[in-house]
Amino acid sequence: MGAEPVKPKGEADAGKWGLTRPQWKDIQSFVASGLSQLPWGQALFLQIDRPGGGWLRSLRALEPIKKGLGPINNADGLFEEAVTIAFTWTGLQRMGLSDETLKTFTTPFREGMHQEDRRRRLGDEATRGTIVREGLQWSGNVPPEDPSITPAASPKTVHALLLLYDWDEGAVERWALSVQTHLNTQGVTVVHRLPLSLNLDKLDKEIVAHEHFGFTDGRLQPEPYLQPPAGNADETYRWRGIPLADVLLGYPNFHNNNEIAPCPLVPFSDQSTLRADGAPEGYLNLGLNGSYLVVRELRQDVAAFWSSLESAAATMRKQGPHSSAITADWLAARIIGRQLDGSVLCPPGVTAPQNDNFGYLANDPYGFGCPFGSHVRRANPRDGLARDARSGPNLLDAANHHRIMRRGRNYGEKIADRMVDDGKNRGLLFMCLNTDIARQFEFVQQTWLLNPSFATLFNETDPLVGPKGPMTIPEDPLRRVIEVETYVKLAGGEYFFLPSVSALDYLQGL
Ligand code: HEM
User: Fold this and answer.
1) pLDDT in tens, 214-247
2) Domain count across the chain
3) Does residue 359 line the site of ligand 1, with CB under 6 A?
4) Does residue 75 fall inside a structural domain?
5) Are 400 and 364 found together in one domain?
6) Residue 283: phi, psi to the nearest 5?
7) Is there an atom of ligand 1 within 6 Å of 434 CB?
8) Is 411 close to ligand 1, i.e. is its CB under 6 Å away?
9) What would the mean pLDDT of 403-410 be, rounded to a whole number?
10) Summary mean pLDDT of the chain
11) How far is the CA of 262 from the centre of ligand 1 (A)?
12) 463 occurs within a structural domain
């Protein structure tokens, strides 16, 4: 998820990442913050029936959308509400962007998440049991460029995602319903709606978010830098620093000779507030200060997760004295790679690091603490794939080429008893920001989470988001292997373009 620990209301975020005020003012608040001050939300999935930007113009004129859709601005009293909007490729078509402009978006975004090759890469195949039984509920329904490829039609076509965040659950629901009524008058239909939450709880002195299985979530994030800091003294940069260019379009990416990720372009006009930055002559940069948003609605079966781990633990306890202390919590922690309270799993005798600036190579090279195959170790192996201490920094650097900024939220109610299936629909609306979908999100999913030969493993995948299969828990002298079911299934998803504030101005003028 994307919620950093809750900060006191009013704490200034402006100036974050070394951006100047004009740049900062152009960025939607969702990019810059997990917005955990506003723990309740509503996700409205929109279908644009009346093409053009008129509906967006009228939506942005409504209070409190007018105040909440824009940059973080605590000084102006933001954080009563926050609003985010992003578009699928078919949505941008409906907005009225020309074919010439549409072609300047990157290939993964244009093809969409359900194009045949991408679907295979992401492991989204009904035969693997990773899709909900009813089949995909929504997508951008992008028509394939190659007509020989079957489009992955899902019943509901989504053109835009509108996220509303508030500090009150009832208020945000009432707000969502009034926005829905307004949109209906503008030729826009809400085809799907999810109530969002962070399941906040007090842990020591901190208030933290929890995902539905009960683990603290959203704290492990990369740290964007506009420029690499001078010298080697910056510990945060060393362990989890990434170029701002991996989160925001239009900035030089210092992974790669200061290359700027390809940005969508529109023909030059002196009436526009868009800037040219990096665009070829005759064009303006529609991507600058925007990002690509990956959205996956991942349904979680909480009761099945805990019941099956309870029974696996009971069976293991019967195996002998070396297994007498195994509990469902112990197994679940190995699946995630963290304790329920978020603390790091370390081998016996090793002190757990107190913050996120650490690697696996020095303290846990054999996975005796945090298993190689656990969700967090796959999702970000840090320096743990290095062969020896000498190659550690290079492997850490390579891993940091593939980081994503997570911004997900829970949908559905918190379960009352984790062992009892109440039949309700709940899960994670996984959302992450990146500027190169193939190098970042898709790489994490394909090459780390779903790689059957990840690290020293063979024929197993991420125990949390992968299909049913074995998971190895290394231990000295004998490893354990458990069989893990599929507790997380895809219900819908798509790639979105999340525009800057000036790009929203451009789109509403179409
Ligand atoms: C329902 C599905 C999922 C659940 C319940 C889940 C849960 C978690 C939890 C509990 C953590 C550690 C706590 C924290 O961040 O504070 C975590 C970390 C992480 N997850 Fe997931 N996750 C899910 C899906 C995904 C997916 C689909 C991806 C990417 C494709 C992903 C990528 C990551 C990354 C990058 C980290 C941070 C690892 C690190 O930096 O050490 N997760 N997840």
Assistant:
1) 999 988 999 999 988 888 789 999 999 999 999 9
2) 2
3) no
4) yes
5) yes
6) -130, 160
7) no
8) no
9) 97
10) 92
11) 27
12) yes
| 53 and 185 fall within a common domain | yes
Q: Is 183 in the pocket of ligand 1 (CB under 6 A)?
A: no
Please tell me the distance between residue 233's alpha carbon and the centre of ligand 1 in angstroms.
Answer: 28
Give a yes or no: residue 212 inside a domain: no
Length of the chain in residues, anyone? 510
Asked if residue 312 and residue 277 are part of one domain, the reply reads no
CA of 210 to the centre of ligand 1 (A): 11
Instruction: Report the amino acid identity of residue 427.
Output: G
Q: H-type helices in 122-240, by residue range?
A: 169-185, 235-240
Average pLDDT value for residue range 51-67: 95
Q: Is 265 in the same domain as 308?
A: no
The verdict on 324 and 279 lying in the same domain is no
Residue of 430, 434, 462 to test ligand 1 pocket, by largest number of atoms within 8 Å of CB: 430
Q: In Å, how far are 89, 125, 133 from 129, measured between CA atoms?
A: 28, 7, 8
pLDDT bin (cut points 50, 70, 90) of residue 74 is low
Six-digit token pair at 458? 């063979």
Cβ of 298 below 6 Å from ligand 1: yes
* Residues 359 and 468 both lie in one domain: yes
151 and 277 in a common domain: yes
pLDDT, position 15: 56
Q: Tell me what pLDDT residue 476 has.
A: 87
Range of the domain at 372: 297-492
Helices 328-336 and 302-317: crossing angle, nearest 10°? 120
DSSP H helical segments within 52-168, as ranges?
Answer: 54-60, 65-68, 89-95, 99-102, 107-111, 116-121
Element (H, E) at 165: strand 160-166
Where b means 16+ CB within 10 Å and e means fewer, 105-122 reads bbebbbbbbbbeebbebb
Q: Are residues 278 and 301 in the same domain?
A: no
User: Could you give the CA distance from residue 43 to residue 7 in angstroms, rounded to a whole number?
Assistant: 23
Give residue 278's pLDDT band: very low, low, confident or very high (50, 70, 90).
confident
Q: For residue 8, tell me if it sits in a domain.
A: no
